[in-house]
Amino acid sequence: MKNINAMWTMINRRRGSGNFQRKSFILILLIASVPGLITGLSMYWFVIQNVEQELQTLHENQIDQRAKNMDEQFNYIEYSTSRWAFEPRFGEGLRDIDFVKEFEETYDITKTLLLLQSNHALMKDVELYLNVEKPILFSSEYNVLNKERNAFYEKNIGKGKSIQWTQLPDQNGTMALVQNIPAASSQPFGSIIVTLDRQKLIELLKTLTPYDKGATFIMNADNELLLQSNSTQNDGFVSALKKEMNRNEESRNAFLFDYEGQTYSVSSGAFSRINEEWTYVSAAPMSSITAPLLFVSRLIIVISTGALLLAWLLSWVASKQISSPVNRLIRNLLDGQDGKPGVAGNDAFSLIEQRWEALSEQSTLLQSRLAEQVEDIKMSFLLQLMQGSFYHYSEHDLKKRMEGYGWNVEGKSFAAIDIRLTGIHDSAGHFSNKDESLLAFMTANIMEETADAVFDSHTVIRFSDFSAGMLIIYPAQAAIRKDMHRFSEEVTRAVNDIMNVQVTVTLSKPVDTIKQIPQLFEETRIGSRLRNVDNRNQLIDLQLVTKEESAKDVHYPFPLEKEIIQAVRMGEMDEITPLIQRFLLELQEKSNAEIYVQQGAIQLYSSIQHEILYSGVHPHELFHGKNMIEELSQQREVHRMAVWFTTEVIAPYLDKIKGRMNVEAKRMVEAVMMKIGQEYMTDLSLESCADEVGTNPYSLSKAFKQVVGINFIDYVTSLRMEKAKELLTSTDMKINDIAERVGYRHSYFNRIFKKQMGIPPSQFRKQRESISKGGDQDESGHERHV
């Protein structure tokens, strides 16, 4: 910037001498051109005019013959490439080959390509590109392409042309012929790329100019340069010649072209290539064509030299006066660098122009970088401010820092707006979790565009939870509440129309100090959770929210929680899903605010986690260290919470315990059955047996029923009844003693025995005794059966 300002000041100082310099240069040009004009006119009228016409005709005939030769070589390359595409080796069979396993086929293809490469001298390389699952490029070896290199080859296949000429994306623009394979297929899966030797092409192109000087180039149908050979040492010559040809469409086949004091004989023609037509142009300086007039030219040089010496003497005084300030300007621009005005073919004013452009580009680049860095620094400062990182700063210090970043905060108040998207996962939308970042970016852009028309000073912030916020700075005591509501309505409408999702907008209360900005955004974040979990657009104005509205009675469905926990214990996945849906819907019906629904969901997750821990599974291992509470807090819709519970929490747990349940259950049940068989007469309980085998009562009860087929109590009761029936029939023990022997009190034993057997124990003993007596032989000696 300093260099540019200094140069601009110097130019302004010299602006007053502009007329003098202009007049002096005109005088010099007039004096220098008079001898040349006299000599040139004399030579033109007496010698060159007639000779030029004859030599130009001869020149055109030579170019036509050499152009035909070049056209035939291009035809041969096109014909050979098309013929290769019809060979069976390059057919549909390539699509299914595993080139890694079938390395012999890979080697044969590489050899074939090398053989085809030697088919013509202009062919530098022949490659085979296959757009399969992992794109492959065969050249001198087998290559698997990445996405960047694959883009160019895949683009040529998608152009819809079976064969076409193109240029490789390198610095030289090397020409290549691309033939899709299979030939004549509407859905090609690869291509043969024939790369031409650029240096040999240039040497071939030079033959269109029979002389060592001049320029020759080839253009496509869009007048884009495909190849050029330029020996004029002037980069602008080809561009100027193209413009002249476009301007003179009628006489473009052969004409004379004047460029920087030199006359060129220009001849052009057409190459009919596949799918397009190329134009070749050959330009040779007339000084080369008129070489037989060398003697006359030397005479002209001698005469012109004398005239130029005379012109130099006459213009020396004027040029000396002009060159002094220009040279000083050049030295200042070079700033101590080596070199003088006019070095490398540049005059003083060209150097001034080049230096000016270079300094201007540097200035623009530095300004752009500075602007980008300032925006990043501003955003970083604002995020740190919202996080409370500057709580120890005074209000004065914060004000100075914000003003240093470009904010005008003197006599200003502040307000915040928080915007969150909902309904992203509804069937009406077309987005998934992967699209949340894109939606947040689009929302921030909509906010930026809308806020430009509503607020004078604002900053849009994108948060890590894919929501967006905005800090508004406005004059103190100004009424902007209506503007904030209007902004909210316009953003909501735009998001609905463009992204087909719903919006929850939270408007903060106004504050007057910078130190209150962190609290401002914290309140909007908490306030946004007062939204109803219904999937609809909502506007929460914290200035209008009363304490009664924000402090509602909290309802928690404890009975449903117990049913869910019991279903988890029993592993009943079919019952768990509808129970969780009922649980969340009841939360929504009783306390529709998102903050209360999420708190209830977090409480349910804590209860399920407690059950998981109790079963011997650690949540950290089960959930791979994920922060499940944070994931749950990101679910803003009831049906998404239900899906999250079943797929992310319960399903992994059931899968975890299911694998070990069969073996462990059988081991536990066998140990418990052995204990029951030995201690059935004692006071056995499900809890004591569970402690014995190192599990919880719920898991033991479930395993017992899976292995034995009946629950724990029924099995113990059945075993005791069998022992009681054995004692009643085989001993004379009193019923009270039998009750104690099998682990019951007398009164309870009678009830449970009657319930199981249908009759009291005393009656059972009498029946058994009568049956036993009836089993003796009758008078006939036969055994009597009952």
Automatic annotation (TrEMBL):
State the PANTHER family in the record: ARAC-FAMILY TRANSCRIPTIONAL REGULATOR, HTH-TYPE TRANSCRIPTIONAL ACTIVATOR RHAS
An example of a GO molecular function for this protein is: DNA-binding transcription factor activity
**SMART domains tied to this protein:** HTH_ARAC
List, alphabetically, the Gene3D superfamilies matched.
Homeodomain-like (1.10.10.60), PAS domain (3.30.450.20)
User: Where is region (Disordered) located?
Assistant: 762-786
Transmembrane stretches in the record are: 24-47
Q: Is Chloroplast among the key words of this record?
A: no
Q: Which UniProt keywords apply?
A: DNA-binding, Membrane, Transcription, Transcription regulation, Transmembrane, Transmembrane helix
Q: Which intervals carry biased composition (Basic and acidic residues)?
A: 766-786
Highest taxon listed in the record's lineage = Bacteria
Pfam families, A to Z: HTH_18 (PF12833)
The organism's taxonomic lineage, starting at the top: Bacteria, Bacillati, Bacillota, Bacilli, Bacillales
Q: Which residues form the HTH araC/xylS-type domain?
A: 670-767
Is DNA-binding among the key words of this record?
yes
Entry protein name: AraC family transcriptional regulator
Q: Which organism is it from?
A: Domibacillus enclensis
